[in-house]
Write a structure and sequence with these properties.
By secondary structure, this protein is α/β, with parallel strands linked by helices. It is 38% helix and 23% strand. The chain binds ligand PMT.
Length: 408
């Protein structure tokens, strides 16, 4: 397990030494990269002595021609030869640079060249942490699937108290090692797969202030995204509006309407090897949305709704060698309805779930489903937490994927 540890310039930089040690204790080889600002707080010698590795401090160096050439591509080499990029402390400046793709030094160029999991452990003054600019940069970074290890609350070096203190080095190292172990251990499961998932409801506008929607919380789809990512799959999660944090290691695409969800799914379909449609997409919408708020004048308001695009059916028509999993929210005849959808939408599996009962389906933390498979079999998954149900669904996905004749 090889971890590239980027050290930013903040008072917490000294804790990065403890972090390097904690990573090594957990079996990781650590390559330290220091920014110019970090050099003001701690010397490279400390890290070199701890890790037994040369510490990278600069993108350029005053070396001979051959060495200059090799140093010019060293950040690419570091990016390609490490399993994770961890940045701690991640300062407000580094978060902004990563969010906007600025690449003026070794660490920021390595970030852009790195395609594996990125873990950021921010530390800064409370007001800087809470500032809208920092929070919007974090949102962008979370949306790229990076794991943010939130700072802890406590007394800060500037004398104030609040969130901003670097998380405990042991906790950061534990998270990094857990993430890498999960990716490795489950590599058999879904490594090499790209799962395109939809989750949550859609909102269909009636006028500039009103909309129709449904009770989907997104919990089922987000549980699937987390489970697929922890099995080593690349996950693209197209999500309607929900109140859930982005799962770690997942690429987020946020949408509001059924048409936006359709466009996002079709735009990313090419990348996917597996498509799972857990979203509760509105079936009807207003095609023409009034520009002004509808006044409460008449005794009745009649809506002339038209069908939204059927995304599942469109993916079914264009699925190629992909494995397609649809959902069916039913109040009765689970299996029969599931099989009907499986055939009409050209799915490989339909997750038929019982809705309209307390404790399962929409909004709740648990679910109870019947997996209707294209092989003719059906598998009942009894009531359990949505993360457990997600794993049972993925067990069947992996089985179907292994059947001969599937591409890619
Ligand atoms: O989000 P939670 O609160 O955790 O709840 C989970 C859930 C109940 C929403 C989820 O488990 C579920 O059942 N999702 C599908 C809900 C649904 O819309 O079912 P449906 O039977 O109406 O649709 C069938 C399938 O067609 C679904 O895969 C749906 O994503 C898809 N669809 C529907 C309409 C449409 N216009 N386009 C579609 O692709």
């Amino acid at each position: 397990m090889r971890v590239a540890l980027g050290v930013g310039g903040g008072i917490a930089a000294y804790k990065a030494a403890e972090l390097a040690r904690a990573l090594q204790e957990r079996g990781a080889a650590v390559q330290v990269i220091m920014t110019d600002a970090a050099l003001e707080f701690i010397t490279p010698l400390t890290f070199a002595a701890l890790t037994g590795q040369k510490v990278i401090t600069s993108l350029f160096s005053n070396r001979g021609a051959d060495e200059v050439l090799s140093s010019a591509v060293e950040h690419i080499h570091v990016a390609q030869s490490h399993d994770a990029l961890l940045v701690a402390p991640a300062t407000a400046d580094l978060l902004a640079k990563f969010a906007h793709g600025l690449a003026g030094d070794f660490l920021t160029t390595t970030y852009l060249a790195f395609t594996g999991p990125v873990i950021l452990a921010p530390a800064m003054n409370t007001n800087m942490w809470l500032h809208a600019a920092t929070q919007s940069n974090l949102e962008a970074l979370r949306g790229r699937g990076h794991l943010i290890i939130e700072p802890e609350e406590g007394l800060l070096a500037c004398g104030t108290s609040g969130p901003g203190r670097l998380a405990e080095p042991g906790r950061i190292a534990g998270e990094v090692v857990r993430m890498l172990t999960a990716r490795r251990g489950m590599a058999e499961g879904m490594a090499g797969e790209t799962v395109l998932l939809t989750a949550g409801p859609t909102q269909e506008a009636l006028d500039p202030v009103r909309y129709i929607t449904n009770r989907s919380s997104g919990k089922m789809g987000y549980a699937l995204a987390e489970a697929a990512a922890s099995r080593g799959a690349r996950v693209i999660l197209v999500s309607g509006p929900v109140n859930l944090p982005a799962p770690a290691g997942v690429e987020m695409v946020r949408v509001r309407t059924a048409v936006e969800m359709r466009d996002a799914v079709m735009a990313r379909l090419e990348e996917a090897t597996i498509v799972i449609k857990a979203a509760a997409v509105a079936d009807y919408h207003l095609r023409e949305i009034p520009a002004q708020k509808t006044k409460k004048a008449a005794a009745q308001w009649t809506l002339n709704l038209e069908p939204t695009p059927d995304i599942l059916a469109e993916v079914g028509r264009n699925k190629g060698g992909r494995l397609l999993v649809g959902f069916a929210a039913e109040t009765q005849n689970l299996e029969a309805e599931g099989r009907r959808k499986l055939e009409t939408k050209n799915c490989d599996m339909v997750v038929a779930n019982l809705v309209g009962q307390p404790g399962a389906g929409f909004e709740s933390d648990a679910n109870e489903v019947t997996l209707v498979l294209r092989t003719g079999e059906s598998v009942a998954v009894p009531r359990a937490g949505k993360r457990v149900v997600a794993d049972r669904i993925l067990d069947q996905v992996v089985k179907l994927r292994r059947e001969p004749g599937r591409t890619p």
